[in-house]
Amino acid sequence: MSDDQPAITLYRLQACPYCERVVRVLDEHGLDYRSRFVEPMHSDRNVVKRVSGKRTVPALVDENTGVTMSESANIVDYLERTYGNGEVA
Amino acid sequence: MVDFDVVELPPHDAPDVGDTAPDFTRPLVDEEYWEDASLSDLTDEGPVLLVFHTMDGAFPSTYIWNNLRDRGVPEEVQTVGVSISSPYEHKTFLAERGVDARLFSDPAADVATDYGIENDLDDMTGITEHRPAVFLLDEDREVQYRWVAAQWPDFPDYDEIVAAVSDA
């Protein structure tokens, strides 16, 4: 929204365990992020589809690297490789 | 409106024209998602019409937003609402009203306290919401125009709002 927004945006669903898994890794690495919450109904998730090509959450956009990705295992791998020591939690 | 006296609301302590409106951060809901946002994030981008209203589903919310929509106010100025309704309710409300605006969710009505416009609802124990009120803020959150409900219910003069927005 404004210039001081975090580079990482996480599209998430409240209480979604796959999303929380990603949040845990973001927190472990002290990464600043903003959350955009969407609805449980897949048909109500056009914004996620526009951003990532799929309607699934979590979806992560990292402006540091230009990466956008879906699926928590992929995202966790990516975060560990990019910001961690490469060991997947 | 009716042939009897409408119930008066007690005095309020809302910011007046020339005052700086309190900043706050709450989930801000559009038709697609919600995320934390600060009022100051919005005013940094330009003037903001800040509309406090009853919980979504109560008829005053419907009236106010239909009128703002039909006068094209959200197209003229960033227009945001605040109510105690949840983000899920806000999304449904925006879709039903077909209004191009965003709504803050403030379930505990703490922002109402900061603005001096709490409205304790009779016989809805434990529920405090925001007294209907409209503030036009400039880039420094200085109040340019203000309307605060004096009765229950009460509605703003929409022509006044349009005029204030045109001058902003």
TrEMBL record, chain A:
PROSITE patterns, alphabetized: GLUTAREDOXIN_1 (PS00195), GLUTAREDOXIN_2 (PS51354), GST_NTER (PS50404)
Pfam families to which the protein is assigned, alphabetical: GST_N_3
InterPro entries in alphabetical order: GLR_AS, Glutathione_S-Trfase_N, Thioredoxin-like_sf
GST N-terminal domain sequence ranges: 6-87
Listed transmembrane segments: none
PANTHER family: THIOREDOXIN FAMILY PROTEIN
Protein name according to UniProt: Glutaredoxin
Species: Haloferax marinum
UniProtKB/TrEMBL annotation, chain B:
Keyword tRNA processing appears in the UniProt entry: no
InterPro entries per the UniProt record, alphabetical: AhpC/TSA, Thioredoxin-like_sf, Thioredoxin_domain, Tpx_Peroxidase_subfamily
Signal peptide start-end: none
Origin superkingdom: Archaea
Lineage: Archaea, Methanobacteriati, Methanobacteriota, Stenosarchaea group, Halobacteria
GO molecular function per UniProt: antioxidant activity; oxidoreductase activity
Species per Swiss-Prot/TrEMBL record: Haloferax marinum
Name of the protein in question: Redoxin domain-containing protein
Keyword line: Redox-active center
Occurrences of domain Thioredoxin (ranges): 15-168
Keyword Hydrolase in record: no
